[in-house]
Amino acid sequence: MATLVAVGAQWGDEGKGKIVDWLAPQADLVVRFQGGNNAGHTLVVDGEQTVLHVVPSGVLHGDTVNLIGPGVVVNPEVLIGELDALASRGVLRDPSRVRVSGRAHVILAWHVALDQAREESRGEGKIGTTGRGIGPTYEDKVARRGVRVADLLHPETLRETAGRVAEERNRELVHRGWEPIEVDAIVDQATAWGRRLEPYLDHTSRILVEALRAGKNILFEGAQGTFLDIDHGTYPFVTSSNCVAGAACTGAGIGPTAINRVLGISKAYTTRVGGGPFPTEDHGEGGRSLRERGAEFGATTGRPRRCGWLDVVMLREAATVNGFTGLALNKLDILSGLAEVPIATAYRIDGKRTEQMPMTLAELERAEPVYETLPGWGEDITGARVDDDLPDRTRRYVERIEALVGVPVAMISVGPGRDQTIARDDLFD
């Protein structure tokens, strides 16, 4: 038995979907444990692209069971759409391959409306939310007034819960100039969702315990990234859940002693969507080139990503709060053709050099990156499948990252395809 948690080491969009898809054949179960459909995981297999927002990225493998844990917030309409699309392609014929926790909370129409209305009212102070209703849903969860997936099977309980929340939520919507949402419409829609999702509902924590006892391999799939974590990220420019590896336990329903390894997933450079500080952002030709070469546009929002150079100050902090046992380095091929490749090894804040992530947003906003420049490589590396296929300068770049972060690079991605991957460690050994 082996259990592996795979999480983003930056601000999300690190290519977690590809890595999870590559690892999934070795896993008996793949588990989503937090976030919602604000995350888009892109998988490319035989040239065909699949973008998943709720269903775990192991679903393309016919023998893998995929769990959506109680820590996830679920938009049933999006989930049903994904399930139907996968079924129409012949990928998902058996409902038992996707199990949804009845304890997961449900994103309803007023959550989406509130998310968008609040962001609209912020003007230039926008946080950069995707407007998918994630934050307001987690608010209701913490306030102990949320609707859970199991409630969709019980219309009377659902109506009672929805009625308690409706007055307050609609009052805020009207205050912000939006139309109120009728409770009856929400209950009717949610009841129909419940009928569609009933074959997929299960007690996912029990499934996990049984799998652990049977010695099965389990892969936990995180959404977003470390620095979007509500506690450890660049607050307030963060999401509404915990994205770090420790959240796999609470969001899936297992104890911490069950986790064997933690894989941090990073690009070979850095990107960010939305507002917030970004010390290594390149506002010039370098950033534009990375965006174009790396096709850096959000899988969920379509928004262009801000681009810059690799920041190992961030990666060291991510390694600290997640306990990485290995790194997966994505999009290394995008750096091919550059004469030089910068790596930020420290910050200078108010004239003082530091190799530590600052505690406050204001300090991070003033942080100036201190770069170490490595020689680039001109070779096309998209055909590399083992370390020896990589040019010497490419290997030196990878080795320097390992030395600076203090974590071995276990996987390297040299292209979007499933097969364009170099495995340097057996993560389920």
Shape: globular
Mean of the pLDDT scores?
93
Could you give the distance between the termini?
9 Å
- The total strand number stands at 20
Q: Main β-sheet, in a few words? A: 10 strands, mixed
Order of the strands making up the biggest sheet: 9-7-5-2-10-1-11-15-19-20
What portion of the residues fall into strands of 2 or more residues? 15-25%
Tally of helical segments? 12
The structure class reads alpha/beta
Uncertain spans: none
Radius of gyration: 22 Å
Task: Describe, in plain words, how this protein is organized in 3D.
The protein has 429 residues and is an alpha/beta fold. Helices cover 31% and strands 20% of the residues. The protein is built from 12 helices and 20 strands. The chain has helices at residues 16-23, 76-88, 109-121, 134-142, 155-175, 183-197, 204-213, 247-252, 285-293, 312-322, 361-366, 392-405, and strands at residues 3-8, 29-32, 41-45, 48-52, 65-68, 73-74, 98-101, 105-106, 201-202, 218-221, 261-267, 270-272, 306-308, 310-311, 326-330, 340-349, 352-354, 368-375, 409-413, 421-423. A 10-stranded mixed beta sheet has the order 9-7-5-2-10-1-11-15-19-20, sandwiched between helices. A hairpin with a 7-residue loop joins strand 19 and strand 20. Helix 3 packs parallel to helix 5 and helix 5 packs across helix 6. The longest helix has 21 residues, at 155-175. It is globular and about 65 Å long.
